[in-house]
Amino acid sequence: MAHAAATTGTRQLHPPPPGLRYYASRRGCVLASPRAGICTRRRRRGATLAVRAMAQTSTAAAAAAAGLKEGIAGLYDESSGVWESIWGDHMHHGFYDAGVAASMSDHRRAQIRMIEEALAFAAVPADDAAKKPKSVVDVGCGIGGSSRYLANKYGAQCYGITLSPVQVERGNALAAEQGLSDKVSFQVADALEQPFPDGQFDLVWSMESGEHMPDKRKFVSELARVAAPGATIIIVTWCHRNLEPSENSLKPDELNLLKRICDAYYLPDWCSPSDYVKIAKLLSLEDIRTADWSENVAPFWPAVIKSALTWKGLTSLLRSGWKTIRGALVMPLMIEGYNKGLIKFSIITCRKPEAA
Predict the structure, then answer these.
(1) 268: closest CA among 36, 60, 19, 68?
(2) How far apart are CA 209 and CA 186, in angstroms?
(3) Does 314 have pLDDT greater than 50?
(4) Measured between alpha carbons, how far is residue 143 from residues 92, 233, 270, 312, 339 in Å?
(5) Which of 37, 39, 229, 232 is close enough to 355 for a disulfide, judged by CB 3.0 to 4.6 Å?
């Protein structure tokens, strides 16, 4: 014969055409050009680099989320005692008549009024024994002011979650002092991964915790998950203004102002009230309603600043730690944000559909 035959097992291969050669593979020998081999190796190397980049991105995102949770927990571990000593156990805005001046004696009543206004806006029944809430989750519970109030008002079983161990300890201690240990309990847990089964609660309550959530859709989705069919969901939270149809984002100066607030209070990116409405619609929630209560909370931050400038406030701040002090220093930025119409104090309520 003019040449020797190439073989793989019993399969006989003829010599490759000029410029080509055989490459070994798991399926035997394949015919390819040297250039094709180089391209294959480059593609594999590119795929490997892409996987590594994705892994690095995922690791960075996980680290950022962990850092955010640690920062939030640390802030409230430090500041909750200061807040309670000056303002009591309701760690949220008060609700005031728009345009009416308020005295210092009005503020704690205004915090209770905030709870009542939220319940009324969501049409949560109080007098109908068959329809009033019997089980409540308080997401971002602070030291449990809302939980204890709701337990007393409805006789409901209330469960509060927070990232702060200090808040959990204090909340449970206050529940014991007030004879509510059989009705109210608190635990450390992530609002985005709640430790409750599906459909457990007929009132899902989030009073000023949504602003801390890095994934707003997951946040609302988790609220909906733990809600029983037909349950009411109430979200009271800080938002930025709705964008105009011609806008793709907030203005640079607005973004800068929010960033300075975020850095002090361990907040991720803000969203608008309309963003919450869109999320609720995507999750097929019903009876979605929202309102802007910015004017009704206008007296609150000036009052907080005034209380911080008292001797008791100043000494408490100095003892608390840097996170609390830094938060106090940016309180005027909250007033600026409200005055510019950038920050919106919003309520969003909705209902989980009844079971089919």
Answers:
(1) 68
(2) 15
(3) yes
(4) 11, 21, 24, 21, 30
(5) 229
Examine the pLDDT at 199 and tell me if it is beyond 70. yes
Angle between helices 216-226 and 273-282 (to 10 degrees): 50
pLDDT surpasses 60 at 18: no
The residue count for the chain:
356
**Average pLDDT, stretch 3-20?**
46
Whether 11 has a pLDDT exceeding 60, the answer reads no
Element spanning 210, H or E: none
Beta-bridge mates of residue 174 = none
How many whole angstroms separate alpha carbon 351 and alpha carbon 305?
A: 37
Q: Which amino acid is at 83?
A: W
Neighbour-count burial of 163, counting CB atoms closer than 10 A to its CB (0-12 exposed, 13-18 middle, 19+ buried):
buried
Q: What is the DSSP string of 92-132?
A: S-----TT----GGGHHHHHHHHHHHHHHHTT--SS-TTTS
Instruction: Count CB neighbours of 325 within 10 A.
Output: 15
pLDDT band at 60 (very low <50, low <70, confident <90, very high): low
If you count DSSP H runs as helices and E runs as strands, how many of each does the chain have, helices first? 11, 11
The structure's pTM equals: 0.82
Q: State the first-to-last Cα distance of the chain, in angstroms, to the nearest integer.
A: 80
Among the listed residues 256, 284, 291, the one whose alpha carbon sits nearest the alpha carbon of residue 270 = 256
Residue 52: CB atoms within 10 A of its CB come to: 10
* Confidence grade of residue 188 (pLDDT, cut at 50, 70, 90): very high
Residue 227: beta bridge partners?
A: 201
Contact between 279 and 217 under an 8 Å Cβ cutoff? The reply is: yes
